[in-house]
Here is the input.
Amino acid sequence: MQKTENYKHKISINVRFSDLDAMGHVNNASYLTYLEEARIEYFNKLFTIPRNNLAFGAVIARIEIDYIDQIRLGDEIEVYTRCIKIGNKSCDIDNLIVIRKDLKNKIAAHSITKIVSFDYSKGISVPIPQNVKETIEEYEK
Here is the structure.
C-alpha cells in the first residue's frame, strides 16, 4: 500500500468541469493531465526550468495507471510525486493521486511513468546528465 508520507513533493489540483465525463466523474484521460502537471512542478522545483522552455530533453516512454477510486467535481485532490528509480537513460516517476476529504487521504490512482532522456536534434535517447542524477538522488534521500 502506498503512503503519502513516502513522497516529498505534492501539488494541489482543482477539478474542472471540463475534466468530467458523461457519468459525472473525472475522465480517465484527465488523470494524465494531472500527472503531467505534477511532473512539471516536480522537475521545476529541482531544476528551476524556465516556464517558456519547452526543450526539456526527455520523452515519456510508458505510463501505467491503476484507477482505484472515482474523482468527482468539487473533490480536493493532491498529486504526490517521487522518483523511485534512475538509470543510465531513464527514470521512473511514481505518483499518487489522492482525494482529500474530512482531513483524510483516499487514494484515487497510482501511476508509474518511465521518462527517457532524449536528444531531439538527433532523435535518440541519451544518458541522463550526471548533475541531473545527483540532484534527483539528493532530493529523494
Notes: Helices lie at 28-47, 130-140. The radius of gyration is 16 Å. The first strand starts at residue 9 and ends at 14.
